[in-house]
Amino acid sequence: MRSTGNIFAFCSYNLLGKWHEAFDPIFDTFQYMVWHKTNPAPKICKAGFLNSCELIVCMWNKGHTWNFLSRKEMHNFIQTPICVGAERLKAPHHPTQKPVAVLEKIIRIASNPGDLVFDPFMGVGSTGAAALKLDRRFIGVEVEETYYHAARKRLNATQVSLFSTA
After folding, report:
1. pLDDT, block means (10 residues), the chain with 166 residues
2. Which residues, including other chains, have CB under 8 Å from residue 93's CB and lie 6 or more apart?
3. Model pTM?
4. Between β-strands 77-80 and 29-37, what pairing exists: parallel, antiparallel or unpaired?
5. At what angle do helices 145-163 and 126-133 cross, to 10 degrees?
């Protein structure tokens, strides 16, 4: 990773301390964002809170790129629905598929066109779809063959739609 690079990683609340312990000594800044899911999965029994928030740990060094359009974008809070409808891949179903809108926001504010976005846990390729849409280069790694093939198909379709003429 370049010295001006960054890491954004989705994690659960119980792992935040481990991420901080591992990466705070390495990076100049360690913060987190909260993704508020406006349509979380229901709890039929009403036996606790809905899982409506997910943490995103953020790490960077001095000199890092920021492309905030306004002060409002500087809040560490993103609010969108989870993947539903046409965005949600049905086959294969990935249990933690992220909405492209969340990833687009992160990629747009933390990188420039032409920069390289790397996703070491690519899943079905949501980060890649967002990166390509924003004119970034993308490398993804996925160990589950089914997800890899779904991501490859999705990213090929994204590239075709980006370059087709209307």
Report:
1. 91 94 95 96 88 95 92 93 92 94 96 96 96 96 96 86 55
2. none
3. 0.91
4. parallel
5. 20
Q: Which residues pair with 34 in a beta bridge?
A: 55, 77
Task: Give SS3 for 101.
Answer: helix
Q: Which domains does the chain have, with CATH numbers?
A: 6-163 (3.40.50.150)
Residue 54 vs residues 6, 16, 58, 73: alpha-carbon distances, Å: 19, 11, 13, 18
Task: Identify the sign of the CA torsion 109, 115, 136, 88.
Answer: negative
Residue count of the chain, please give it.
166
Structure tokens, 112 = 């420039």
**Cβ 94 vs Cβ 82: under 8 Å:** no
Strand partners of residue 119: 140
